[in-house]
């Protein structure tokens, strides 16, 4: 795969026009916390129809491809949210959809895929990751929609950045969950074109932080991945094709613990009545820990698809 080095602002703006009537323009609200280390805001992508920002990237890629090129169907590799984005758009376009998912994918997300009429194929984690790196699953018909490393997907995700700047023009920092870099690099590309003074940080969890490891080493790294309730981010390696773009447009990686993430999920429910999945709460955990600095900080709450049992454990003060 050829490295992705740039996402032009024109492509992000075109994606926004393309996504009219598909993606919701989600609100930006203040985090209701006293004595926070900064003025923290929440970009609520958990309020998309599928509960995740993935509707944007999947929608842009599929609309750009066109229905004729999708007539044999589409498939993706996803722990849950990208699969829902592909399924939601496939149903809208009237084409079949399938997803290759890791065996430990959350039940909440699996049920959502099935409600959307998607065929689900469970495989071991290493096989699932190989689909992401190889962009192919043997015997699967249709067009593969990469969950991360696709310029059209990244451009669709970048529309989040346009909305943040419209709602908070004097934003200082944006903190974004880092799974493979598709969301963070899309937002950072928009910021770089329109407000280069804004620092965009990736947010990762200690159990799986490939971007932080790659920054330390100065090259794409493979890490030891430990499964956790933070299932929406944290692959086993830095995707090489994303490395040139990520290292250029992102200001760094902010890494937090599972305990900090669970506390952030709980706080979001209690203070803002917002349900976030683990990945969606990672930026909030980083900002509350003071790792993103001061000033006006926007935390992208990327999704809210969390199993009720895990949420109950967190609300009771535990870590799933």
CATH topology of the largest domain: Rossmann fold
**What general form does the structure show?**
globular
Strand-pairing-aware structural class = alpha/beta
CATH architecture of the largest domain: 3-Layer(aba) Sandwich
Approximately how much beta-strand content do the residues carry? 15-25%
Task: Provide structural commentary.
By secondary structure, the protein is α/β, with parallel strands linked by helices. It folds into two domains: 9-53 and 151-315, 3-Layer(aba) Sandwich (Rossmann fold); 55-144, 3-Layer(aba) Sandwich (Rossmann fold), CATH 3.40.50.1100. It is 42% helix and 15% strand. The chain has helices at residues 9-18, 54-65, 81-93, 107-115, 125-134, 151-167, 182-194, 210-217, 243-249, 258-272, 278-288, 308-315; strands at residues 28-30, 39-44, 74-77, 97-102, 119-123, 143-144, 173-177, 199-205, 253-256, 296-301. A six-stranded mixed β-sheet has the order 1-2-10-7-8-9, sandwiched between helices. The mean pLDDT is 96.
């Amino acid at each position: 795969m050829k490295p992705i080095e740039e996402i032009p602002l024109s492509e992000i703006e075109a994606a926004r026009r393309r996504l009219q009537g598909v993606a919701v323009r989600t609100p930006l609200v203040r985090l209701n916390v006293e004595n926070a280390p900064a003025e923290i805001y929440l970009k609520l992508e958990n309020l998309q129809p599928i509960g995740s920002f993935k509707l944007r990237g999947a929608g842009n890629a599929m609309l750009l491809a066109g229905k004729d090129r999708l007539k044999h169907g589409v498939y993706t590799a996803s722990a849950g949210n990208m699969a829902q984005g592909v399924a939601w758009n496939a149903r809208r376009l009237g084409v079949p959809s399938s997803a290759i998912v890791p065996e430990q994918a959350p039940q909440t997300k699996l049920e959502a895929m099935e409600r959307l009429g998607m065929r689900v194929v469970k495989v071991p984690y290493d096989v699932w990751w190989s689909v992401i790196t190889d962009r192919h699953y043997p015997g699967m018909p249709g067009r593969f929609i990469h969950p991360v490393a696709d310029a059209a997907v990244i451009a669709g995700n970048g529309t989040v950045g346009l909305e943040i700047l419209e709602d908070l023009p004097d934003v200082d920092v944006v903190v974004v969950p880092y799974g493979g870099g598709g969301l963070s690099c899309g937002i950072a590309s928009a910021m770089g074109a329109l407000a280069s003074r804004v620092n965009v940080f990736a947010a990762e969890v200690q159990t799986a932080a490939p971007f932080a490891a790659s920054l330390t080493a100065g090259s794409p790294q493979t890490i030891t991945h430990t499964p956790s309730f933070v299932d929406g981010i944290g692959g086993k390696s830095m995707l090489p094709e994303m490395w040139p773009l990520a290292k250029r447009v992102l200001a760094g990686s902010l890494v937090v613990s599972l305990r900090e993430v669970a506390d952030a999920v709980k706080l979001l429910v209690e203070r803002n009545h917002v349900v976030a999945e683990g990945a969606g709460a990672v930026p909030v955990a980083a900002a509350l820990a003071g790792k993103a600095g001061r000033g006006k900080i926007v935390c992208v709450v990327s999704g809210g698809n969390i199993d009720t049992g895990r949420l109950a454990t967190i609300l009771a003060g535990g870590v799933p």
